[in-house]
Amino acid sequence: MVEVKEAGLKLKDGKILGLNDLISQMKEKDASAFVDEEQQKAQQNAARFTQPFQRQNQGGGMTKDQIMGIKDASERQAAIAANMHLFTKGE
Predict the structure, then answer these.
(1) Are 16 and 9 in contact (CB under 8 A)?
(2) Which domain holds residue 9?
(3) How far is CA 28 from the centre of its chain?
(4) Tens digits of per-residue pLDDT, 8-25?
(5) Is residue 71 part of a domain?
(6) What is the pTM of this model?
(7) Residue 43, domain member (yes or no)
(8) Quick check: 59 pLDDT over 50?
């Protein structure tokens, strides 16, 4: 925004003169500052994995002791959630 203010663009008949040229220059300097709305929506809707893919299919194959032996707390919690049947009362 500072660049727009510093550019000293003029307003004539409700139009900003030179704005397209300024935007083109800004895109050349830093293309990542300009995001296409469709690309942004696609990124927001992209799948996010909360645990490594290999661990997702281990549900039911681990024992309670194996799960409790996992050192990483977030991995251990994910394994517990995937194997809640091992941690319910009466088991």
Answers:
(1) yes
(2) 2-35
(3) 25
(4) 878 888 888 888 888 888
(5) yes
(6) 0.36
(7) no
(8) no
Burial track 34-71 (b if 16+ CB lie within 10 A, e otherwise): eeeeeeeeeeeeeeeeebeeebeeeeeebeeeebeebe
Q: What gap in Å lies between CA 47 and CA 52, rounded to an integer?
A: 13
Give a yes or no: residue 45 inside a domain. Answer: no
* pLDDT band, residue 45 (cuts 50/70/90): confident
Among candidate residues 69, 67, 68, the one with its CA nearest the CA of residue 55: 67
Q: Record the tokens describing residue 34, joined without a space.
A: 């300009």
Q: Indicate the burial class of 78 (C-beta count within 10 angstroms; 0-12, 13-18, 19 or more).
A: buried
The arithmetic mean of pLDDT across residues 68-85, rounded, is 89
Per-residue tokens: 50: 């909360």
Tally of domains within the chain: 2
- Find the helix or strand (DSSP H, E) in which 74 lies: helix 73-82
Per the document, the length of the chain is 91
Residue 47 lies in a domain: no
